[in-house]
Amino acid sequence: MTLARWLGRAAMAAGYDVKIAEVHGLSQRGGSVEVHVRLGDRVYGPVVSEGDADYVVAMEALEALRAFRYIGGNTVLVVNKRVIQIPGRYLDPEQVYKALQTYKNLRLVPAFDIAMKIGDPIYENSVLLGYLAKLLGVDERVDWLDERNRRAFDEGRRLASGDLQPSASSMAS
């Protein structure tokens, strides 16, 4: 939900109308959380229809598979390259990534790896925010982030620009 709020804030700073809807499901019991963010010149409702998303962002790979119902022909699927194992069942991460790679507009982002090099997995949000904000062109007015979140944001933005190697500054905490 932090990622959605920050994305909404960046989009509003860039002049967009923004609506956010949180669909919790079983989130209180460790399940998934869906958050819809709609932005544009004028947005009338917060919920994205199935098959109609321009972008789908997943904090981990299994969530991306669960979100396929929102994907249309031109949707960009941005996925944190991380598999969180389901208790009692092992899933081979390479098989999960292979399933995702059947989609032509997949962007696997090493947000977890970058966040760990910065010092904490909590920075995954900021890496993905930087990546998505760059794709959407709303990456210029993100001045509210603290130093480490800003560093993670900058790494994500740089990855979206086409430079696929984490910078040396992401290695130090």
Task: Explain how this protein is built.
With about 170 residues, the chain is an alpha/beta fold. It has one domain: Pyruvate-ferredoxin oxidoreductase, PFOR, domain III (Pyruvate-ferredoxin Oxidoreductase, domain 3), CATH 3.40.920. It has 6 helices and 5 strands, in the order αβββαβαβααα. The protein has helices at about 1-15, 60-65, 95-100, 110-120, 125-135, 145-160, and strands at about 15-25, 35-40, 55-60, 70-80, 105-110. The strands form 2 sheets. Strands 3-4-5 form a 3-stranded parallel beta sheet. It has a two-stranded antiparallel sheet with strand order 1-2. Helix 2 links the parallel strand 3 and strand 4. The protein is globular, with a radius of gyration of 16 Å. Mean pLDDT is about 85; it is low at about 165-173.
- Helix fraction, binned, reads 25-40%
| Number of helical regions | 6
What is the residue-averaged pLDDT? 86
CATH superfamily: Pyruvate-ferredoxin oxidoreductase, PFOR, domain III
Listing every helix as H and every strand as E from the N terminus to the C terminus, the arrangement reads: HEEEHEHEHHH
- Beta-strand residue percentage: 15-25%
- For the biggest β-sheet, the strand order reads 3-4-5
**Shape type:** globular
N-to-C CA distance: 25 Å
Rg on CA atoms, Å: 16 Å
CATH class identity: Alpha Beta
Major sheet description: 3 strands, parallel
Structural class: alpha/beta
- What is the architecture at the second tier of CATH? 3-Layer(aba) Sandwich
Q: Give the low-confidence spans.
A: 165-173
- Number of extended strands: 5
Number of domains: 1
CATH fold-level topology: Pyruvate-ferredoxin Oxidoreductase, domain 3
